[in-house]
Structure to design on (413 residues):
């Protein structure tokens, strides 16, 4: 059925509740909303059909007409029970033939809107789907550390997610292991992370799971190395990471690698006798990373194929995070004393100090709009917690207040 001016046809759910169903549930907020937005559709596409499915519920279906004037369409599922739903989207032509198709999981948050942006990819016939929460709210993953120790030795770390205002905090792992360095995929459906899963204390690998904590899959499998600090490319197709598999210095060499999002095609990017780690992607596919050379820690930039390697900073830097708009790289530096958050443009200009607290600051991560930065800090005379600030360092807000050390935020962008 084709509907004029983007009017939505809903397969309605009647008398819905979420008792007995898993999901992020805040008291009094039992349902959320899912809004779809398509822009710049090819001329032959006249309609988009979207289906939300979840075990124990009838399917929800909407049909959106593509406007001739804008080649776009919008529509919403309303009163959707909280939890993880599977979304399938098809873009049809005038003969009702599906020319494009895409699918992903969508996390519905109580009282919030999950905004789903659709992009049709003519070369592949697929639909790129990006999910963001609540318009101005989006998802942040973080780690809570327990100093009592994990079963593999050393500290225990568990992964959590929350919305970017600090609400809806949800624990994803509880396995008495060290799970850390979370990175949320651009479509908001998966978390890549580093874990000390095998028996040897010093060895770690990269895993991925859904943002509800299910469907855990191991991506790197060498139990005699450290693979870690995973970060997603902006199209969600690649993951850059650090590995010690190429030992060349004491205590171990570290190099930057790239792999496909399913763990295949692991390829070495840096190839030197230095210590390289903490990769971060630019929107155009370059990688910034920390490199220790001659005893100095600084930021470098390299193309994903290993070419055009060059330094970015010369007076200390680490833990870089490239903004989604490509304009800035946030990083940690001790150049003025204590570890603080700075930002610099990718061409090396515009260096600015964003925090100047006496406490240690670490692990900056950008909001999807590049307007804010989350980071970890021991300020306010508390254990390490997650904070948020504007991209110029203003309006600092504490997001977590857990009884344990909390940090390593990863904002979905």
């Amino acid at each position: 059925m084709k509907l004029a001016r983007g009017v939505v046809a809903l397969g309605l759910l009647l008398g819905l509740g979420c008792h007995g169903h898993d999901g992020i549930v805040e008291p009094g907020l039992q349902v959320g909303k899912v809004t779809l937005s398509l822009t710049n559709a090819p001329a032959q596409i006249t309609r988009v059909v979207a289906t939300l499915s979840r075990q124990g519920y009838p399917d929800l279906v909407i049909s959106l007409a593509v406007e001739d004037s804008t080649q776009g369409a919008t529509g919403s599922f309303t009163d959707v029970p909280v939890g993880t739903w599977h979304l399938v989207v098809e873009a049809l032509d005038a003969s009702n033939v599906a020319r494009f198709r895409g699918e992903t999981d969508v996390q519905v948050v109580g009282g919030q809107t999950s905004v789903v942006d659709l992009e049709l990819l003519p070369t592949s016939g697929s639909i790129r789907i990006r999910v963001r929460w609540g318009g101005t709210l989006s998802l942040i993953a973080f780690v809570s550390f327990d100093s009592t120790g994990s079963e593999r030795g050393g500290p225990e770390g568990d992964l959590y997610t929350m919305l970017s205002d600090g609400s809806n905090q949800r624990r994803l792992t509880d396995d008495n292991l060290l799970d850390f360095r979370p990175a949320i995929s651009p479509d908001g459906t998966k978390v890549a992370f580093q874990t000390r899963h095998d028996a040897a204390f010093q060895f770690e690998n990269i895993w991925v799971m859904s943002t509800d904590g299910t469907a855990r899959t191991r991506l790197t499998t060498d139990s005699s190395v450290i693979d870690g600090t995973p970060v997603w490319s902006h199209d969600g197709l690649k993951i850059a990471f650090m590995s010690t598999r190429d030992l060349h210095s004491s205590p171990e060499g570290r190099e930057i690698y790239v792999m496909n999002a399913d763990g295949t095609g692991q390829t070495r990017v840096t190839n030197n006798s230095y210590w390289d780690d903490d990769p971060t992607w630019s929107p155009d596919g370059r990688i910034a990373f920390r490199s220790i050379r001659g005893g100095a820690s600084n930021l470098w930039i390299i193309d994903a194929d290993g070419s055009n390697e060059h330094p970015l900073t010369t007076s200390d830097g680490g833990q870089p995070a490239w903004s989604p708009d490509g304009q800035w790289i946030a990083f940690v530096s001790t150049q003025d004393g204590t570890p603080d958050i700075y930002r610099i443009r990718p061409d090396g200009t515009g260096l600015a100090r964003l925090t100047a607290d006496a406490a240690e600051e670490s692990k900056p991560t950008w909001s999807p709009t590049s307007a804010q930065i989350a980071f970890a800090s021991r300020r306010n005379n508390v254990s390490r917690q997650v904070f948020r600030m504007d991209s110029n360092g203003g309006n600092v807000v504490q997001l977590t207040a857990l009884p344990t050390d909390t940090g390593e935020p990863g904002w979905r962008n």
